[in-house]
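call fold target=GDP-L-fucose synthase
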Amino acid sequence: ASEEAFKPDSVTPALSGGMGHNSPNLLWEACGSNSLFSLLLPSPHFSPCVRAQMGDRKVDQNGPMRVLVTGGTGLVGRAIEHVVKEEGGAREGEEWIFLSSKDANLMDMGETRAVFQKHQPTHIIHLAAMVGGLFKNMRANLDFWRNNIYINDNVLQAAHEVDAVRVVSCLSTCIFPDKTTYPIDETMIHNGPPHESNYGYAYAKRMIDVHNRAYHQKHGRCYTAVIPTNVFGPHDNFNIEDGHVLPGLIHKAYIAQKEGSPLVVWGSGTPRRQFIYSLDLAHLFLWVLREYHEVDPIILSVGEEDEVSIKEAAEAVVEALGFKGQVTYDTTKSDGQFKKTASNAKLLQHHPNFTFTPFKQALKQTCDWFVANYDNARK
């Protein structure tokens, strides 16, 4: 997802105080796990999608797509653009439009509606979001909640108003309950509160699933969402303070190598993550847009056996960059959620022949891109 979905001067100030130890649990208990959220669990009613379009504009679902990509200049948006334009991923007659914050402030309904009316998309890939790593989430949960709720509500309503056939939104495995059984699957999104470190972002992303089901129930819309695990690749945000773990490690290792200083990894190195290469995710987004006809979300991830610890990820970065210095772990820094192992069984059932790029190969390509584009990379 891309932070370019909004204009910096429209974002509310970051929180200066603590988030309150029980905030996510209080929200969950107030809603009632056996009331509202029991209605949101995947159901045969939502799968597969109703094919009929409910608006006045008749769209030929088998005709060429006009695809609007929100957050089109971020990590995943750039990867999709590469697949479409450089790898021949677009089909004959298709039109692809990649939006950035220069085109519209998606937290403003008027601007969102105007850019959708201008382009009249038949299909939308919704990547735009306020995003950030663990420490940025911990200090700004309110901002993550409010800004993402505005963006998502505006985009889905504008899509409905232009009678878009399909919307594929991007969620994250951080939306899943903190206290759960593993592996996590698509039926478990609403089974409990997320980890307290990023509950604002997690709840806002969960609500896209609620949006999709409600638009299907009322209007027959075939809007869905994908849930990728930790995405990395060229055009990532390599900011050490606010970026995600892998690009942050790459940037820190690059600086440490230049300065001849130790590489300091924040946390103990024990948490485990599944990483997916952005170009692999881009190919899967195109498949979902064309071939996956369910409102129920789908996890896009490497297998459970490919999960690695942060320590193993740091060692892979060291190898990819040829770093020769000392590696230390700052255990005064938070580890965040220990694990969020996701099952890709549903993906394999629908798309059994998909091959993921091996982690070390994808990481080497990402490191090489960062070094070659250091001056212009987001950092």
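return ok
Residues 1-45, 50-59 have pLDDT under 50 and may be disordered. The first strand starts at residue 66 and ends at 70.
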